[in-house]
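Q: I have 124 residues here and want to know how they pack in 3D. Can you give me a structure?
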Amino acid sequence: MLQKSPMYAYIPAIDVEQARRFYEDKIGLKATAEINGGVAFEFAQGTACFLYPTPNAGTSKASQAFWQVEDIEAEVAELKSRGVVFEDYDMPGKDANGIVNAGGARAAWFKDSEGNIMAIIQDA
């Protein structure tokens, strides 16, 4: 039954206000609600994430969430122009912009203000 249900991302933040500024100012998101000390953001096709307070932010060494995009080069360029710094992983298939082409997808990663790894993905 879960296959037919929407799934949402939870993004941990030690400093919710700092993280909110990052997502609003650097990424360009608009918050849709403030709930119990956290902040909700809504995206396309009914998806959303919840930025919530926790001392565990930035402890995962894997991506917390990703955005599925149509034009990864344009998205990376836009985010870089806003001051977002992309991770430089030593992976095969990496181009000059740090976008990796592997496994049927193209991907680029950055860390948010809390040290969480976020990704941008485009089908190859």
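Q: Anything worth noting?
A: The two ends are 30 Å apart (CA to CA). The first strand starts at residue 9 and ends at 13.
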